From TrEMBL:
Residues 455-482 are annotated as: Disordered. Residues 46-445 form the FAD dependent oxidoreductase domain. It holds the Pfam family DAO. Residues 471-482 have a biased composition (Polar residues). GO terms for cellular component: cytoplasm. This is FAD dependent oxidoreductase. The lineage of its organism: Eukaryota, Fungi, Dikarya, Basidiomycota, Agaricomycotina. SUPFAM superfamilies: FAD/NAD(P)-binding domain (SSF51905). Coiled coil: none annotated. InterPro entries: FAD-dep_OxRdtase (IPR006076), FAD/NAD-bd_sf (IPR036188).
């Protein structure tokens, strides 16, 4: 994801009228709605976490259940709990297993690129372990995903990455099944234009249920204080303590100020509002997603047996999961059909209203036809009941928007913000957070509790160093010249 740093203003605070995603529509009975563990804010705490998406919730969980847990943890959330990207994503927990290796190697070199890819697979295991251990009812499905190329350009790019990863010793045996025979790829994926497909382990889940379970657990068992509808408007420190290891942070909200020894920014797309050094280093970007009711040929025994991501051209793609729980298909992407693809980056409007920087009508239209366009037999020709048309209630159920945080080097920022003792960030997940955040949060919690970087499994490249923030734009320019 490449962009010019200068072009993006401060993201501001999350907008006040966010839409409800398919997930959020189904959680209107949650006891977390409007939750405030205490009536007023405590004047001082050990740790403040800003943001209650998966980054905030998983960091709280690993901090409070790890070694040396802090005495008090306060979570401040501008909206309802889990009302950012996590509450409105595709529910796809899908690691990079070789895809993307090519690009990562160009930026970071072979060893680090291999670590970044291995980190994703470790995250899938960690998510599975976490959900099993805590018995989290979040419609978790562990299976496989297809990575399918729909034309030769996309297939060549995919094969390049696959072969390079294999030659560099990447663990591919027993993990990735590559099919280069296009007829076989079509048969397996049911996609009309499949040229090539690879399959590998992946998962799907109901993101709000995962996060709300973690938050409830932290509140009821480990003393987390969650305060929803409490936006943080500024974070500072007194001039005397800024350079000291025990700096006291002052967190300002419309409901009063809180002092903390440590502050964690789990604010993804909005990080630069509170930490201006991230301006241009984490840039917001709007995504659109749809819930689709399948036709009979994709229901019951005809349901898809794997999730998928399909590519065409240089870098166009959609992704989907079919929920085993109810057969609903969650389809994300559609950017190719946008008349303003450039405006998606920099956009912070997740009100879900069509137009004016909000939901894009062209993408909604695209979602209506995408299944039929790409998947064979979507409209069942043998059904004399329906011919080519959909029954009332089939097809697009609803679509919504959400805001992601993108970085120039396509990896998140995780760790201590250089030059700011006691300030930590876990943000910039580049639309790939479900595939990384649990491991990022576990590593961050270890760092905060006193472990060294090498004790964690975090790739070195994730560090929020001044050097990285300065250098990214230069690296990007060099890469683009290659
Ligand atoms: C449409 C869409 C589809 C996606 N699909 C997938 C997918 O299928 N798979 C995948 O891996 N990833 C996907 N993603 C990306 C994924 O959702 C994110 O990477 C992940 O949820 C980020 O989690 P987070 O906790 O870091 O951020 P968020 O969930 O955005 O949480 C940040 C929280 O911080 C709060 N906040 C921000 N500023 C302040 C402030 N000043 N004061 C108080 N609170 C504040 C926000 O309100 C928000 O609740 C998708 C994203 C979108 C938008």
């Amino acid at each position: 994801m490449y962009y010019e740093a200068e072009s993006y203003p401060s993201p501001g605070l999350p907008v006040k009228d966010p839409c409800l995603s398919f997930w959020l529509q189904n959680t209107r009975s949650s006891s977390l709605l409007g939750h405030r563990t205490t009536e007023s804010l405590p004047p001082s705490v050990d740790v403040v976490i800003i943001g209650s998406g998966l980054s905030g919730a998983a960091t709280a969980y690993y901090l409070l259940t790890g070694l040396n847990p802090p005495k008090s943890v306060l979570m401040l959330e501008a909206r309802e709990a889990c009302d950012g990207a996590t509450g409105r994503n595709g529910g796809h927990c899908r690691p990079y297993v070789f895809q993307g290796y090519h690009e990562y190697k160009k930026i970071f070199g072979k060893e680090e690129a291999l670590k970044i890819i291995a980190f994703d697979m470790a995250n899938l295991h960690l998510m599975t372990e976490l959900i099993e251990k805590e018995q989290i009812d979040c419609d978790f499905w562990l299976g496989e995903s297809y990575e399918t190329s729909l034309d030769q350009e996309a297939a060549d790019k995919k094969l390049d990455s696959y072969q390079m990863f294999k030659e560099d010793g990447g663990p591919i045996e027993g993990v990735v099944k590559m099919t280069t025979d296009s007829d076989e790829a079509k048969r397996l994926t049911r996609m009309r234009n499949a040229v090539l497909t690879a399959s590998f382990p992946a998962a799907s889940l109901f993101p709000y249920k995962l996060v709300s379970h973690l938050l409830q657990l932290c509140i009821s068992k480990f003393g987390l204080n969650l305060q929803t509808h409490t936006p943080v408007t500024a974070v500072g420190t007194s001039a005397q303590t800024i350079t000291k290891a025990d700096a006291q942070w002052i967190i300002t909200t419309p409901r009063g100020k809180v002092m903390a020894n440590k502050v964690i920014f789990a604010t993804n797309a909005y990080t630069a509002t509170l930490l201006p050094e991230f301006l241009g280093n984490i840039v917001p970007g709007q995504g659109q997603c749809a819930a689709i009711v399948p036709t009979p040929s994709y229901s019951g025994k005809g349901m898809m047996d794997k999730t998928c991501c399909y590519y065409w051209g240089k870098d166009h793609f959609d992704y989907l999961i079919q929920r085993p729980k109810d057969g609903i298909i969650i389809l994300g992407g559609g950017k190719d059909s946008s008349p303003r693809p450039g405006a998606i980056l920099g956009c912070t409007n997740d009100s879900g209203r069509t137009g004016e920087g909000g939901k894009q009508a062209e993408i909604t239209e695209y979602f209506k036809s995408a299944m039929d366009k790409y998947f064979g037999g979507w409209h069942d020709p043998n059904s004399d009941q329906r011919g080519d048309s959909l029954r009332s209630g089939e097809g697009l159920l609803y679509d919504w928007t959400g805001i992601m945080g993108f970085t120039r080097d396509n990896i998140p920022f995780v760790g201590n913000v250089e030059g700011k003792p006691g300030a930590y960030v876990i943000a910039g997940h580049c639309g790939h957070g479900m595939a990384r955040i649990a491991s990022c949060a576990k590593g961050l919690a270890m760092l905060i509790s006193g472990a060294s970087w090498s004790d964690t499994s975090l790739p070195e490249s994730f560090r929020p160093t001044k050097k990285r923030m300065r250098q990214t734009s230069q690296t990007t320019k060099n890469n683009e010249e290659v």
